[in-house]
Amino acid sequence: MPKGRAFQTFLTISSGFIIVALLGSILILARERGWLARLENWVIDSTALNGNSPAERPTDERSTVLLLVSQTAEARRNALTELAQAEQSSFERSRARYLLASDWLAAQEGGRALRLLTGLEADYEVLAPYILLKRARARALTNERERMRSELEALIAAYPDSLVAAEALYYLGEFDPTYHDRALAEFPDHPRSQQIARDRLEGDRAQPDLLLYLVRQVPDGEGMSDLRDYLVENYADDLTADDWEAVAYGYWEQWEWEKAARAYAKAAPNAVSLYRTARGQHIAGNESEAARGYENLLTEFPDSEEAGQALLHLADVGPRDQAIAYLDRAIAEFPDHAPAALIDKADRFEARGEGRIAGQVRQQLLDEYPKSEAAARYRWQQARQAAEADDFVEAWKWAQPIALNTPDSSLAPKAAFWVGKWAQALDRDADAEKAFRYTVRKYPESYYAWRAASLLGWSVGDFQTVSQQQPVIAPPERRSPPPAGSVMLQELYQLGQDEDAWRLWQAELGTRRELTVEEQFTDGLIRVARGDYLKGIDQIWSLQNRETDAERETWQELRATPAYWQALFPLPYWQLIQEQSAEQGTNPVLALSLMRQESRFEPEIRSSAGAVGLMQVMPDTGTWVAEQAGYDSEFQLIDPADNIQLGTWFLAYTHREYEGNSMLAIASYNAGPGNVNDWVQRFGYNDPDVFVEQIPFPETKGYVESVFSNYWNYLRLYDPEISARVEN
Fold first, then answer.
1. Which among 222, 241, 422, 681 would be 20 to 30 A from 25, CA to CA?
2. Spatial distance between the Cα atoms of 468 and 465, rounded to a whole number of angstroms
């Protein structure tokens, strides 16, 4: 049953005015808090559970249509046509009709799409509102504007509470602007409503209500910094404390620290607003103002979690003679911050020349907080110093507890791997093999798992051979449904209708800032699907920062799914990369891995140094490569094809310069050949793993490890042989 009709039926059979009024209040609250999607999801699910669905939905594994989603429209057309023309009604036939109609609409073939969409909503209820919306689009393409209007009005009449109604109101605004007023009033969370507000502000920003609406709805949206500035500059006296909090949050999210601090100072005082007032000034370099802000926080909210962090910062920006006192207070009153405070305290005593006290403080850290990240960092520091002195037994003793006590530390895979390396140096081959196997099994996503697998003799390449390997890459056959969102959203996503899914998802989320683990993953998943790789990958990667046990348990469950890792390591531009790598005789997965690190697959991204595009090619380098290779001199670095052609040629060139050594070539791609040659001369190249540790530029060291970590993850995810071996 369509959602609108479901609610009409419910209201009809409900007894009493009170129930009706209560439901209306719930709907208003639901829309305000982003719960409307859950109500819509419940209605659609209830319809299916009541047995009213006209066709049984197949499991994903049995769906032929889902196998076709990753293909181009042209490649899948014949198969979809055959499925769409099946005599017997089925969920698969409905899916095929919808997907094929969407392809025809994208090709501006309204008539063909219309024939597929006519009457489809009766068989494909999960996407019924979208079927009406697409029929309206088809009418527009066939120049039937009045019938387009009728389709849109029918959508609103049949599904008045569906978030898809906002799409209809948006397009109906072409006929009557009052429809846009309705969209803003009834569906404020929908991106179409937000676009209406943006359109109305074009050429006339003197509309504070619309400005504030956008500040609240899309704090990190495109162009919001300018709109926020305009609101503050022209209407500051009219803003309430709640308004200032919304303004401040937007500045904070866009890293405009000083502006955020000033705005938070005008928001209602609480632990977060006072902390961000101080921290914003701190990051902006205004240390005296920051110190006053931190002290104010300690006075007003002395027991808050933010107060513990403030004490750590006050040790840096407060009076010098009070630094140890601030740290001692953090140690005594805030256990979560005590490990960091102990390390800071020890370092300060060390700097004063009081090594004995520093040692006592560090021992206190190891005794009282052995499972802390600070303890892991200190242990690694000591292990590395011992290894540099060739005392591998001592290094081993310091490093081994890192993986045991702090298995979730970012240093744990490194420590586990180097225990194996030091065991090799001590001719303890059995222990070395045990450590390497542990690294692969426990930390399969890490750079060190690749190095361990290589040293175990797996066919994964090493620094000298990887460039000539040609891994077998098998992309995923179908998309798994996201773990959050309505069933309508999940169906759109699985069918590859990414822009529709994205707008619906934004409307379902509303303005909530705190997302569940499943919601944050879904947000990243959809962003990646629509090509917003930078933000999408970051959304998923930052799930590791969740702190509660329940959240981390859910995160670990997601990490156990292929979809999690495939979203972190997608395969965009794969065909282009394969073609250009084949021309250069290099490993395409290595080029893909470098691209992920350089640009997160953003084709128009620019670095502060002037590098442009997917493989971050400098304009002068691009010109030189074009001359050397005989390419068209009229290239565009923001064009994926041009950038990949120039970047893969240059990557192959750096490999030739270093006789096929991929580690030196990758380091050169980042730091330049002059620096790499200098490091080889200074440090030698007897052990490549030691050399990586000795790279003096932290950025380049991290870059090398990240590129090869990417490479390894692509192997373990998409190379069937390697994937099977890692899993076993």
1. 241
2. 6
Structure tokens at 485: 């969102």
Closest CA to 503 of 130, 172, 248: 130
Q: Which two tokens stand for residue 602?
A: 């953003």
431, two tokens: 């222990």
Q: How confident is the model over 365-392, as a mean pLDDT? A: 96
The CATH code of the domain that includes 438 is: 1.25.40
Coil, helix or strand for 95? helix
> Are 494 and 562 part of one and the same domain?
yes
Same-domain pairing of 645 and 667 = yes
8 A C-beta contact, residue 339 and residue 374: yes
pLDDT tens for 653-703 read: 999 999 999 999 999 999 999 999 999 999 999 999 999 999 999 999 999
Q: pTM of this prediction?
A: 0.89
pLDDT of residue 54: 53
Question: String of b and e for 202-236 (b: at least 16 CB within 10 Å)?
Answer: eeeeeebebbbbbbbbbbebeebbebbeebbeeee
My answer on whether 696 and 595 are in the same domain is: yes
Q: Output phi, psi for 427, to 5 deg.
A: 60, 30
> Of 367, 389, 408, which marks where a domain is finished?
367
What is the residue range of 237's domain?
217-367
The long-range contacts involving 282-286, CB below 8 angstroms and separated by at least 24 positions, are: 282/313, 282/317, 283/257, 284/257, 284/258, 286/258
User: Which residues neighbour 625 within 8 Å (Cβ) at sequence distance 6 or greater?
Assistant: 617, 631, 646, 649, 650, 653
Instruction: Look at residue 179 and tell me if it is in a domain.
Output: no
Listed in sequence order, the residues at least 6 apart from 417 whose beta carbon sits closer than 8 Å to its beta carbon are 435, 436, 439, 448, 451, 452
What is the mean predicted confidence (pLDDT) over 356-372? 96
Residue 235, token pair as written in the block: 């209407």
**Any idea of the CA torsion for 367, 368, 374, 379, to the nearest 10 degrees?**
10
Determine the Cα–Cα distance for residues 29 and 294; give it in Å rounded to an integer.
37
Note whether 327 and 400 are same-domain residues. Answer: no
Looking at the fold, whether 420 and 497 belong to one and the same domain comes out as no
User: How many Cβ atoms from other residues are within 10 Å of residue 701's Cβ?
Assistant: 17
DSSP label of 603:
T
Same domain for 578 and 552: no
Determine the average pLDDT of the residues in 8-24: 33
DSSP 386: H
- When mean pLDDT is compared across 1-15, 51-65, 108-122, 574-588, the lowest value belongs to 1-15
Both structure tokens of 233: 């500059």
Confidence of residue 155 (pLDDT cuts 50, 70, 90): very high
Nearest-angstrom CA–CA distance, 278 and 670: 36
Q: How many domains does the chain have?
A: 5
634 is catalytic: no
Residue at 210 is within a domain: no
Largest CA-CA distance found in the chain, in angstroms, rounded: 87
**One-letter identity of residue 442:** K
Is the C-alpha dihedral spanning 442, 446, 447, 453 positive or negative? positive
Number of residues that this document lists for the chain: 728
Indicate whether 276 pLDDT > 90: yes
Give yes or no for a contact between 83 and 118, defined as CB atoms under 8 angstroms apart. Answer: no
Confidence of residue 55 (pLDDT cuts 50, 70, 90): low
- Of 541, 568, 595, the domain-final residue: 568
Residue with tokens 């060139």: 653
CATH code for the domain in which residue 153 is found = 1.25.40.10
pLDDT tier, 27 (very low <50, low <70, confident <90, very high otherwise): very low
Of these residues, 245, 508, 598, 705, which one is catalytic? 598
**Whether residue 602 sits in one domain with residue 654:** yes
Average pLDDT, stretch 97-114? 98
Q: Is residue 167 part of a domain?
A: no
- Bridge partner residues of 606 (DSSP): 612
